[in-house]
Each structure stands twice: as C-alpha cells, then as structure tokens.
C-alpha cells in the first residue's frame, strides 16, 4: 500500500488516477459507514482506521467528497461540531452503503490475488 | 452520476457562483481551524498550530478551484470564458465580424420570414374544431373539373347521407346594401346554412348560430355580424343582438356576432341564411351554385364519404336526368382546398431561401478558414500550453455559434420587418397570411437553423485548426498554406457557385415567364379604363333601368370621358358560366354540353373595353326588349360552327325552355380567368342589357360594373363619377373602384410575388458567391506573393501572372457552373407549374445564366489577379 495519496495531479495517466480516486472514494465511504462526520473528522477517522499508516493530503478530500455527493452516495448538511463550531456533516446514503460493499468486495478480491501471487514466488 | 444532480449543480454554480464558492471556503476554513485547535491541544503555539494545519491541508487555492469545478462551476465558467474571448476576437476584427454577421443575418432573416409565412399558411392547423374532419364538397360533370354545388342537390343529400356529421352551404362575395345607419354602405355577405358556425366548432361571441327555422324561404330575415363590422358600426355594443338592420331594403334581425378571430374563405361583414333566398338557387343546373363545407363523421375516410355521396348522386341522376346526368360529388380536404394553389410556390421559395442560407454558410466558412490560417500561431500557443484538441474545437465552435446567434437575433428582426414587406407584395386571398408572425414554432425553427448554421460553417474550420502540426506551426508564422485547407475552400467555392447558378436559373425562368405573360394580348385594352361596381338590389326594375340609363348618359357628358358602358361580368372578374346549345346542331350528350361564359352588357361595351369586332355587328340602340333577341359571340364560340358563317344562326343557353338568340356578330376572345393562358379558350357570348325587360331586372341582375374609358388618368375621374351616382340616388353604394390596369396587375400578383422573391434570393446568392470567389482568390494571391514575385523576377510577363491567377479562380467557377447546370436540370422540373411560355429546361435561360455567372466570376477573379501583377518582385522576395 502506498504511504501517501496524491490527488488531481495532471501528470498521472488517467487509469492510474482513476484507481487512486476510487481508493479515496472507498476510504471516505468506509469512514462514514461508522456514522456522520465533517470533513476534518473523516480525515481523522481514516488515519485512525489505518493505524496512522495512511495519510490523505487533507485538502484533496474535498473535491472527492463533492464528487461522491453528486453521485448521491452521501448527503451533506450544515451542523455544529462537539465544540460548537459550524461544520458540514456528511452522512452515508443507502446508495452509498451499497457502493461501499461493492468496492470492499473488489478490494478483497484484489488483495486475495496479490496474496496468492506473493505466495507463488 | 445522476444527471439531474449534475445539471442542478451546474445551474447553481452558474447562477449562485458566490454562494457556492463561499460554501467551499467556509467548509475548508472550518477544517483548518479544527486542525489548528487539535494542534494547540497537542501543545503547539498559536502560530505553529496554524502553520502546521495549513501545511497539512495543502494548497487551499488549487483545492478550492478543483472543488468548484466538481461542483459544476467548470463547464459554465469555460463557456463564459469562451464567449468573452470570442467577443473580444470579434471586436478586434470588426471587418470580418461585420461581413460574417451581415451574411448570416441575411440568410437567417430570409429563412425566418419565408418560414413564418409557410407556417401561417401551410403548417398551422385551421382554427376550427378538429379541422382534419372538414371537407369542401364540389360537383363535377363528365368533363372533370370542380364546380360549385347545385343548391337543390345539396338540399337533397343534406339529409340523405350517413357520412357527414353536418353540412353547410358557404357562398361568399354576396352584396348587401346597408341603409338607414349613416352613410349607405355596401357590405360583403356570406350565405350559409343553419348550423354553419357549430359545424366549424365556432361559438358566436354574442347571440346564437342560425337555427333550421331561420334557414327557409319566408322565415323572418336574420343576420350574424362579423366582429370587425360589429365594432366598426356598433362600437362593440352588446345590445345589438335582437336589433334590426336594413339590408337591401329589408329588415334583418341581428341574432349573433361572430368571434373576433373567425375567418372562413373571403371576409364577410354579414352572414345570412341561404334559405331566405332559396328561390334564387332553385334551378338544379348549378347556376348559380353554392360552396359546401362538411364535417366527416369520425372514422369515415374521405374516399368512403365520396363513394357514399355519389350513391346519392346516382339516384339524383335517375330522378333529374335533365340537369344531373354525369354529375358527381368531389370531396377535397379543407386544408388542400384553401392552400392547394399556394403550396407549391411557397415550398419552392422555402427551398430557395434554404439554398441562400447554404451559400451564406459556405461564405462564412470560407472567411473562417482564411482567418484560421492567420490564427495558426494563436492556436499553436494554446495547444502548447496544454489545451486539448477538444478544447480548441470547443473554443472555435463557441465563436461560430456566437456569430450564428447574433445573426439569428438580427435575422429575426429583419424577418419581422421583411414579413410586412413581403405580405404587402402578396396577392389577396392567400389564406391566413395576415396571421403570419414569429410564433413559437418559427422561433424554434430559427434557433434550430442558427444552431445548424453555426455548426455547418464552424465545424470545418474548427477541425482544420485543431489538426495543426505543433512544431511546424510554432516555427513558421503563416507561411505555406496547407494543401488540405485550400482544398476545402475550393470545394466550398464550387458548391457556392453551383447553388447560385441553380437559384439564378430558377429566377430566370420565372422572369421569362412573367415577360411572356405581360406580352399576352388580353383581347381588350386595359389602359385608361375605370371600373366600379354598383349593386342593383332594388325591387323596382323600372327605377333601376332608369337609373343606369341616366347614369351612363351623365357620365358620358363628363370631360375626359370617351365612352361609358355597364356590364354584368368582367374579364378577370366574376362571370356566369352557363352551358349553351347551337340550334340546328345535334344536341350533345347529357353532361357533356359545352360550357360558356356569359356577359350581359350595354351596347357601348365593346367600344369601351376596346374589344375588336371580327365580323357582323355589335348591339345598337335599336335592339330593345321588343325586337328579336340578339347575341354577340367570340371567336372561340365561332369555331363551334366549323367553316359555316355563325352570323344569323341561333344560340340558346342552359335548357331548351329558355329563348334562343340570333347571332349578330363575332368579337375577339378575351382572357377571362387570368392572363397566363389556360390553353383552353372557353367560348364567350354577350347578351344585351337593353333587351332585358325592366320587370325581369330585380330577379336577374344583382351587380353591375360601370366602365368608363377616359383620355385622362382614369383614377382621377373616380370621385366625379361617384358624385354623379350620389346625385341620382343618395342611397346607392359604390364599391371596388379600380382601374383595369390595377385589376390586371392584381391578377398577376401571385406570379409577380414568386418572381420578385426568387429574383431577390438569386441576387443575394450572386453577391455572396462573388464575394466568396473574390475572398478566396485574394487570399490565395496574398499567400503566393513570394512565388509570383519570383516568377516576375525570372521574366514572367504581367499577362502570364494574370492568366495564372484568373485560371485558378475560373477553374473553380466553371466547375461550379457545370455542377449547377446539372443540378438545375433536376430542380427546375419541380417548378414546371409556375412557368408560362417557357420550358423548365429552356436552353436560352440556362446558357444565358451560365454566361452571366461566369462573367461575374471573371470579374471577381480579375480584381485579385490585377493586384498580383502589381507585386513588386524586390519587395515580394524580401517578404520573408
């Protein structure tokens, strides 16, 4: 697994960019599957979920988040965080839950294939 | 991605740009502040915490832009950016912009104008309830053709049929003298049956439709007013219903007022039940006949209805062999009945104006191509800086669509103005022309046409421009035109010339036809002849005869008057068309009797009209009701006698019961229906007014033409003659005051209209094509300056250079002419019906037009070629 995701760099080929973007999408969905969160919270949760191994460049979260919102996988609402600060909260929709399952399965398959290949050498 | 979300987001990003951006900003700021707080909690100083947070967030500006694009801002932003850029480019090259916009405006404007007329006349459904069920019924005899229906026949099958929901008589062009309400006035009337308005699905604005009890002989006279007449005469007074007005000296009760937009056939101020005058239509031979409109029952086809109706006609034939032998019903859909005549000319004009637009597109495409090559470096820079090919095409298409949009807006304005002008040129009686307007359908058409136009002239240049070789283009400025571009331009020029030739040939054929029509000898002299109509609806025949005799005498005495006559029936006007029999010849088969045209005239008619006497004599004052009945016939009727002399033979009309007339003279045939030659010359004969006993006038004469031949400008006498009429009878209405020249001119209006419009299109096309050739060649010369200079240094003469350049242009022009000739041969066939005295493939026209176009092309080549010979070799060589 790569240590850092960079997003939106033009030098990448499209296929590679899609792959990375898809990964970020899944991470966001996964983070939200435990409950609604604001953007900062999503970053924190991804970090915690990956035992601090995976750090997302924080700003890159937002374009990805908005894209997911347009796809209808998450819904957004302004609210207040635990310290009373105004923040936008994202919540997984039913479509988002379905999408998460699909992505997890495909990742599992990939992981399996990679594991087999490593075992073969 | 759900398209709706995307669209909504894009719209929001466009309309609420600041709000969307604020939203993003606020969210990102909140994020950074939360991180800062977390950092502070870890023990950092305030500055450290903020710095660290900003660092781990990354580049706020670029993330914000990226996020905004995701939220839909990008598409519209780019669009606006392109539009602004295009506008700047157009303003920077005003010459190009002006020519392009002018060309497109002309093309789109002309198309919009013609389409709006086509839309009003042909496409828009008639404003009646389910108009597709409405048909017009006519009668035909063995010879074919379509005549009006005999009223007694109508009454018979009105109730016997099972195929119509409703039927009604519709006879326009009836006269009513309105008296007792201010100035005496002649009104246009329409005879209808009970239920006429409900048949069409029209609810009267006030009052009611005619009931069956209104529509019979002896019923209390009733009338329905038109909206226009009601507002003019009664000032929209609703209490008019139930009141009485005096028409033809009889009191009519107003039972209703038609709605404002109601129109059916000729305009009529008043509608009157035909049953009141059933007596007048009681002859089963269809003179005078009536028009009939019917509504088909649902699920009954036109053919079914016609077959069924003709079963009834077969029964009538057995019952009334005298009048009904060979008589059959013909059904025509309402729409076809009213628009059949104008359909083809209008469609041809629409097609022609479409060709003009194509030529305009080709021209603008050419301009853009030339410009694209001067903008090559600009494009290269854009591509080098990372613009994709699609992005470049999009930019260029935005430019051409912008040109098309400007053209469309200006074109619509031009159309609104042009339509008034065109409508002015149009002949009367084109149905619903006054409704022509820019409605939704026309707007959709215009928008569609402009989009297609923009893509059409923009796509080729855009594709060309995007296909450039980056390194070459950046290295060299604008030297060395690519061969491909030159080829596209050549094809465009050839196409333009070909289309122009086709239009010119079409216009040429119409002009030729018009010239031939003007040369047709009408058989009378239309110059210096004033006509006006006077209705003779007075129950006292002696008064009427006295009035007309006195009137003719008074007018004859006026200065400037050479001759005066009265007539019932006028060339290019309304006439009676009875059948006739020649005594001593075998009676023709039933239904095959020859039809004739009957004029009833005063003795001076022939002299007044300028109709030449061929043989025998015309009427004199010695022919009176008590002397033997006489008739003057025309050459066409004289041919029915073969080699025998018709003078002294006898003629009778309609049926054997009517009296026969002695033929006393033969006159020239006159053109009755129009001047463009029905090849069939319907026999004509003239009866003498003076031989009609005064008692019979009220029944047989309803409308009289007063004809005055003058040796001054005829229109100048109109007021004086009106004055004479008023002096004799102050209640006498006078109408249709026109000179014969005007009548002739009106009869040619439709033909003139097609000719003028098509010629205008052809001239525009010619101008555009010339500009096209000129522009292309000018550019080519500019490109070859160096080469030409080199040739001249090496000793080429000016003549050689001239030939070289002209040759290049003329090769294309001649290819276009050849192609155009082939296309014209195929296309002019569609306008065969519009031509007169000239064939659709008239060699003179084809060759003449080809020569004309080649000559214009030569001129367009000449100017740039001359410029080429002026090239100074030294300067040309230093050019690089």
Secondary structure layout:
The complex is a heterodimer of chains A (121) and B (880).
Chain A: E1 4-5, H1 14-32, E2 37-38, H2 39-49, E3 55-56, H3 61-71, E4 74-80, E5 86-92, H4 94-120
Parallel strand pairs in A: 1-3
Antiparallel strand pairs in A: 2-5, 4-5
Helix pairs in contact in A: 1-2, 1-3, 1-4
Chain B: H1 3-15, H2 17-41, H3 46-57, H4 60-70, H5 73-92, H6 94-123, E1 134-141, E2 144-147, H7 151-160, E3 164-179, E4 185-192, H8 196-200, E5 206-207, E6 222-225, H9 227-234, E7 244-247, E8 250-257, E9 270-273, E10 291-296, H10 302-319, H11 321-324, E11 328-333, H12 334-374, H13 376-384, H14 389-425, H15 440-466, H16 470-475, H17 483-519, E12 529-535, H18 541-556, E13 561-568, E14 580-582, E15 597-601, H19 605-609, E16 613-616, E17 630-634, H20 635-638, E18 650-653, E19 660-667, E20 684-688, H21 697-700, E21 703-710, H22 718-728, E22 734-739, H23 740-747, H24 749-783, H25 785-793, H26 798-827, H27 843-869, H28 873-878
Parallel strand pairs in B: 4-9, 6-8, 15-20, 17-19
Antiparallel strand pairs in B: 1-2, 1-10, 1-11, 3-4, 3-7, 3-10, 5-8, 6-9, 7-8, 12-21, 12-22, 13-15, 13-21, 14-18, 16-19, 17-20, 18-19
Brief summary of the model shown:
The complex is a heterodimer of chains A (121) and B (880). With 121 residues, chain A is of the alpha+beta class. Chain A has helices at residues 14-32, 39-49, 61-71, 94-120; strands spanning 4-5, 37-38, 55-56, 74-80, 86-92.
How would you describe what is shown here?
- The complex is a heterodimer of chains A (121) and B (880).
- Chain A is α+β, with helices and mostly antiparallel strands and 121 residues long.
- Chain A has one domain: Arc Repressor Mutant, subunit A (Orthogonal Bundle).
- In chain A, the strands form two sheets. In chain A, strands 2-5-4 form a three-stranded antiparallel sheet.
- In chain A, strand 4 and strand 5 form a beta hairpin.
- In chain A, helix 1 packs across helix 2.
- Chain A starts with a strand and ends with a helix.
- Chain B has 880 residues and is of the alpha+beta class.
- Chain B folds into four domains: 69 residues, no CATH class; 183 residues, no CATH class; 307 residues, no CATH class; 184 residues, no CATH class.
- Chain B is 53% helix and 15% strand.
- Chain B is globular.
- The two termini of chain B are 55 Å apart.
- About 1% of the residues of chain B have low confidence.
């Amino acid at each position: 697994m790569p240590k850092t995701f960079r997003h939106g760099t033009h030098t990448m080929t499209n296929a590679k960019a899609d792959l990375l973007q898809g990964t970020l999408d899944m991470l966001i969905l996964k983070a939200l599957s435990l409950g609604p969160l604001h953007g900062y919270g999503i970053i924190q949760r991804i970090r915690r979920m990956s035992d601090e191994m995976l750090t997302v460049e924080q700003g890159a979260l937002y374009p990805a988040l908005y894209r997911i919102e347009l796809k209808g996988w998450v819904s957004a609402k302004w609210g207040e965080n635990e310290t009373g600060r105004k923040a936008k909260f994202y919540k997984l929709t039913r479509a988002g839950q379905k999408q998460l399952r699909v992505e997890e399965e495909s990742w599992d398959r990939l992981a399996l294939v990679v594991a087999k290949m490593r075992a073969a050498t | 991605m759900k398209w709706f979300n995307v669209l909504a987001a894009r719209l929001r990003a466009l309309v609420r740009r600041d709000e969307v951006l604020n939203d993003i900003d606020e969210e990102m700021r909140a994020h950074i502040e939360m991180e800062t707080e977390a950092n502070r909690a870890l023990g950092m100083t305030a500055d450290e915490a903020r710095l660290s947070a900003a660092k781990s967030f990354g580049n706020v500006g670029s993330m914000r832009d990226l996020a905004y694009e995701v939220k839909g801002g990008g598409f519209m932003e780019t669009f606006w950016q392109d539009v602004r850029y295009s506008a700047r480019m157009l303003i920077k090259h005003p010459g190009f912009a002006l020519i392009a916009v002018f060309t497109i405006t002309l093309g789109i404007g002309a198309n919009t104008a013609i389409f709006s007329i086509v839309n009003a006349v042909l496409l828009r459904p008639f404003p009646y309830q389910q108009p597709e069920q409405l048909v017009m019924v006519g009668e035909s005899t063995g010879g074919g053709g379509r005549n009006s229906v005999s009223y007694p026949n109508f009454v018979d099958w009105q109730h016997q049929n099972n195929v119509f929901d409703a039927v009604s008589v519709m006879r326009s062009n009836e006269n009513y003298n309105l008296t007792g309400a201010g100035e005496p006035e002649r009104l246009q009337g329409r005879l209808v049956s009970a239920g006429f308005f409900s048949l069409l699905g029209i609810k009267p604005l006030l009052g009611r439709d005619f009931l069956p009890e209104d529509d019979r002989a002896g019923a209390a006279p009733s009338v329905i007013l038109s909206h226009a007449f009601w507002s003019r005469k009664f000032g929209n007074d609703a209490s008019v219903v139930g009141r009485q007005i005096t028409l033809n000296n009889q009191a009519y009760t107003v039972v209703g007022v038609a709605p404002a937009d109601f129109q059916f056939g000729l305009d009529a101020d008043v509608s009157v039940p035909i049953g009141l005058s059933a007596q007048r239509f009681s002859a089963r031979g269809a003179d005078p006949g009536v028009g009939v409109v019917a509504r088909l029952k649902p699920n009954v086809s036109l053919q079914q209805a016609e077959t069924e109706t003709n079963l009834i006609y077969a029964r009538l034939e057995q019952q009334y062999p005298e009048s009904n032998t060979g008589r059959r019903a013909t059904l025509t859909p309402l729409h076809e009945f009213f628009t059949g005549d104008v359909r083809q000319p209008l469609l041809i004009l629409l097609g022609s104006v479409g060709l003009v637009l194509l030529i305009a597109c080709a021209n603008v495409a050419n301009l853009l191509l030339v410009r694209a090559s001067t903008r090559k470096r600009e494009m290269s820079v854009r591509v080098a800086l990372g613009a994709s090919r699609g992005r470049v095409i999009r930019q260029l298409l935005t430019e051409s669509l912008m040109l098309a949009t400007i053209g469309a807006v200006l074109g619509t304005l031009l159309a609104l103005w042009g339509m008034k002008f065109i409508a002015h040129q149009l002949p009367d009686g084109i149905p619903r022309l006054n409704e022509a307007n820019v409605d939704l359908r026309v707007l959709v058409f215009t928008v569609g046409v402009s989009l297609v136009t923009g893509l059409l002239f923009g796509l080729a240049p855009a594709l060309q421009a995007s296909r450039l070789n980056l390194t070459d283009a950046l290295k060299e400025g604008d030297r060395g035109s690519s061969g491909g571009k030159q080829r596209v331009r050549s094809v465009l020029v050839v196409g333009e010339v070909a289309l122009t030739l086709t239009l010119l040939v079409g216009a040429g054929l119409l002009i030729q036809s018009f010239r031939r029509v003007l040369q047709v000898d009408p058989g009378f002299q239309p110059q210096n002849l004033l006509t006006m109509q006077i209705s003779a609806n007075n129950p006292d025949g002696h008064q009427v005869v006295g009035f007309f005799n006195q009137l003719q005498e008074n007018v004859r005495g006026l200065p400037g008057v050479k001759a005066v006559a009265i007539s019932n029936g006028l060339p290019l006007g309304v006439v009676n068309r009875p059948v006739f029999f020649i005594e001593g010849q075998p009676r023709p088969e039933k239904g095959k009797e020859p039809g004739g045209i009957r004029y009833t005239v005063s003795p001076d008619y022939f002299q007044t009209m300028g109709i030449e006497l061929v043989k025998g004599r015309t009427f004199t004052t010695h022919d009176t009701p008590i002397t033997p009945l006489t008739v003057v016939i025309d050459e066409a009727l004289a041919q029915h006698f073969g080699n025998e002399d018709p003078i002294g033979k006898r003629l009778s009309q309609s049926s054997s019961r009517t009296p026969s007339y002695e033929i006393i003279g033969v006159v020239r045939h006159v053109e009755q229906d129009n001047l463009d030659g029905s090849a069939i010359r319907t026999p004509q004969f003239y009866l003498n007014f003076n031989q009609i006993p005064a008692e019979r006038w009220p029944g047989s004469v309803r409308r009289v033409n007063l004809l005055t031949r003058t040796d001054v400008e005829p229109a100048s006498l109109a007021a004086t003659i009106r004055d004479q009429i008023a002096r004799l009878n102050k209640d006498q209405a006078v109408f249709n005051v026109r000179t014969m020249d005007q009548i002739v001119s009106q009869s040619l209006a439709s033909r003139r209209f097609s000719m003028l419009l098509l010629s205008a299109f052809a001239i525009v096309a010619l101008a555009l094509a010339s500009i096209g050739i000129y522009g292309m060649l000018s550019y080519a010369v500019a490109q070859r300056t160096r080469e030409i200079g080199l040739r001249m240094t090496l000793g080429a003469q000016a003549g050689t250079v001239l030939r070289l350049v002209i040759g290049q242009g003329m090769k294309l022009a001649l290819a276009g002419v050849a192609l155009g000739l082939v296309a014209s041969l195929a296309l002019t066939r569609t306008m065969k019906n519009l031509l007169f005295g000239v064939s659709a493939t008239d060699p003179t026209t084809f060759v003449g037009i080809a020569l004309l176009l080649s000559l214009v092309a030569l001129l367009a080549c000449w100017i740039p070629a001359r410029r080429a010979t002026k090239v100074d070799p030294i300067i040309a060589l230093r050019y690089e």
